[in-house]
Design a protein that fits this description.
This protein has a single domain, classed as NADP-dependent oxidoreductase domain (TIM Barrel). β8, α6 and β9 form a beta-alpha-beta unit. It is α/β, with parallel strands linked by helices. It is about 40% helix and about 15% strand. Bound molecules: NADPH dihydro-nicotinamide-adenine-dinucleotide phosphate.
Length: about 280
């Protein structure tokens, strides 16, 4: 299975579909990432918060896949925001991952109450200038947070990784990203396996195209131009979720899925969340 790549605003290529490992215990992460690599995933999304970077690193080390065929993302957590703490967090993550150069480093949340994301971003700019990371980006940033980085710093974020699924299509943010050359990456792309998978709009499209509801939703993301990182610890689902490159949806399908928007979030509100 070959996953197409999208090009970031600095020319770096990112596989459009990757593998998320949030809530996978470190002891199970190596097996999950091993299954993903065997199924053809080459892009892995972890974070300091997930406490499973070591498991990701172990799976990468044992796989023996050439480093330049892999794309690895990790994130700096709220309690490590600020210039020096962000650099230290990055170095500790790299130690756990067993990597010298990272593909993508993200600020996990803007945590506006802490008011440290501009300093954190300056640390990211240094890591980027020093060649330690191939691209830098953010996560859960709202337009005002992005605008502040655009106004006060030098490097435009390559990506904003945000909660995005049919209930929360994030049209306003996606338009902002498109205007500024920032790619949209969808977290909880399957709304964490919730009721959207049994919604009649999705199941009826799935029936017509002969695919599963999860595959229809992932296809919807890909056709919108999102980078997408579904998580599963179930080998059959890991394989199912990457098998989405040989069918397409119609404009009527897109219109019907657009009608599922409720604005419901699974995660916290980025304007107020600042847990350490
Ligand atoms: P997802 O939308 O990827 O859903 C994962 C859930 O759906 C799991 O319970 C999984 O079950 C189930 N599932 C997966 N595939 C299928 C399928 N084909 N059919 C039915 N059920 C399925 O949720 P996540 O929240 O994990 O988001 C994905 C990734 O995004 C995370 O792992 C993480 O990397 C990232 N993320 C980033 C955040 C941020 O703040 N930046 C926040 C949250 C997530 P099972 O595993 O049991 O198979």
């Amino acid at each position: 299975m070959t996953v197409p790549a999208l090009t970031l605003n600095n020319g770096v290529q990112i596989p459009q579909l990757g593998f998320g490992v949030f809530l996978v215990p470190d002891t199970e992460t190596q097996a999950a990432v091993r299954a993903a690599l065997q199924a053809g995933y080459r892009h892995i999304d972890t974070a300091k918060l997930y406490q499973n970077e070591a498991g990701v690193g172990a799976a990468i080390a044992e796989a023996g896949i050439p480093r330049d065929e892999l794309f690895v993302t990790t994130k700096v957590w709220n309690s490590e925001q600020g210039f020096d703490p962000a650099i230290a967090s990055f170095e500790a993550s790299m130690e756990r991952l067993g990597l010298d150069v990272l593909d993508l480093l993200l600020i996990h949340w803007p945590a506006p109450d802490l008011d440290r994301y501009v300093d954190t971003w300056r640390a990211f700019e240094k890591l980027y200038a020093d060649g330690r990371v191939r691209a830098i980006g953010v996560s859960n940033f709202q337009p005002a947070h992005l605008q502040r980085l655009l106004d006060e710093t030098d490097v435009v974020p390559a990506i904003n990784q945000i909660e995005l699924h049919p209930l929360l299509p994030q049209n306003e943010l996606r338009a902002f990203h498109a205007e500024h050359g920032i790619l949209t990456e969808a977290w909880s792309p399957l709304a964490r396996g919730g009721s959207v998978l049994t919604d009649p709009v999705i199941t009826s499209i799935a029936g017509r195209v002969g695919r599963t509801p999860a595959q229809v939703i992932l296809r919807w993301h890909l056709e919108l131009g999102n980078v997408v990182i579904p998580k599963s610890v179930t080998p059959a689902r890991i394989a199912e979720n990457i098998d989405v490159f040989d069918f397409s949806l119609t404009s009527d399908d897109h219109q019907a899925i657009a009608g599922l928007e409720t604005g419901e979030r699974i995660g916290p509100d980025p304007d107020t969340f600042s847990r350490g």
